[in-house]
Amino acid sequence: MVLIGLVIGIVLGGAIGYLYSGREVLGGPAATTGNTMINGGLPPEEISALAGDFVNENLLQPGLTAEVANVSERDGLYEVRLEVSTPQGAQTALVYVSGGGRLLFVNPPIDMTQPLPRPQPPAEEAVKTVDIDRDRLLDDDPWTGNREAGVVVVEFSDFQCPFCARVHPTVQRMEDDYGDRILFVYRDFPLSSIHPMAEKAAEAAQCAFEQDRFWDYHDMLFQRQQSWSSVGTPRFKEYAAELGLDTEAFNTCLDTSKYVHEVSRDLQTGSSLGVTGTPAFFIMASKEDADVETLKNLANGQTLIYRESSDGKNVLFQISGAQPYSVFQSVIDAALSNAG
């Protein structure tokens, strides 16, 4: 665009300048072609001079010049075709001038006898899908709540992650508030490259799970995170003894890395779902039970992501990071919206 300073109006595309301070006259029957003068208006030669001078003095970018190539009448206005010299070569621009030479418009007039094309609503962005079902999302990992609940909340977490420890009270509140209306599942996602003790902590928690004490051990690891982060296995064994576990069985389980493959499977599932950091939560519900539109509106495409299972039956909403309780509440309430 070679013209500058354009102001859009509501009539005929907007006037951007006064070319002539005299009395405005629009009149008479319109001619159709050539340099025909508008009845009651200025002659085309004067319009050419006025428009050319005004455009060159006020509207062009520095270093550009315009010459009037043609002036013709168009339904009571003069249509002025300009040839503008630019570093890229000559360009054509059209401006419109009122018959009396006072107003200049930079947009073409709107023909009110013809319907305008209606703006089309933006195309709805395709919903992203993920190849996951309820059984694969839950696996055989520790859970609490109602195994038959329609809404599942799965956390991928790292026991050495400070943000996972920070969100732990939020998770406990969620479990208390929703009770048997949800199923909560804990899955491991140790970020070993930055948390060197996280992998072994996950294995230790699985060894406690073997003795039906996962949640007590889970809570202890988060509550005492600073205590074991630089110590590792010896401290994990102390915690097992403190909880009254069968220490011989626990120590053997931990020393033989009995659950290393279980932890690895969780990592693989989390990665397939797009988990790159912890904590990461997935809320799954059937599309029939969930308020789908509310969930879509809650999503921001970054820390809050709406997806659907590839079979089209379930919604899968991802929450990344130690979000405030209100975020979890909004998502879970929407997931439960139509549940019986």
Number of distinct helices? 11
User: Helix fraction?
Assistant: 25-40%
Rounded to an integer in angstroms, the radius of gyration calculated over CA atoms is 36 Å
Sheet/helix structural class: alpha+beta
Name of the CATH homologous superfamily of the largest domain: Glutaredoxin
**CATH-scheme architecture of the largest domain:** 3-Layer(aba) Sandwich
- What's the CATH C level of the largest domain? Alpha Beta
- Overall pLDDT level: 87
Number of strands: 12
Q: Write down the domain tally.
A: 2
Overall 3D form? elongated
Identify the strand order in the major beta sheet.
6-11-12-10-8-9-7
- Strand share of the residues? 15-25%
The largest β sheet comes out as:
7 strands, mixed
The CATH topology annotation of the largest domain reads as: Glutaredoxin
Order of helices and strands: EHEEEEEHEEHEHHHHHHEHEEH
Question: Can you describe what's shown?
Answer:
It is built from eleven helices and twelve strands. By secondary structure, it is α+β, with helices and mostly antiparallel strands. It is elongated, with a radius of gyration of 36 Å. Helix 10 packs antiparallel against helix 11 (325-335). The strands form two sheets. A seven-stranded mixed sheet has the order 6-11-12-10-8-9-7. Strands 1-5-4-3-2 form a five-stranded antiparallel sheet, covered by helices on one side.
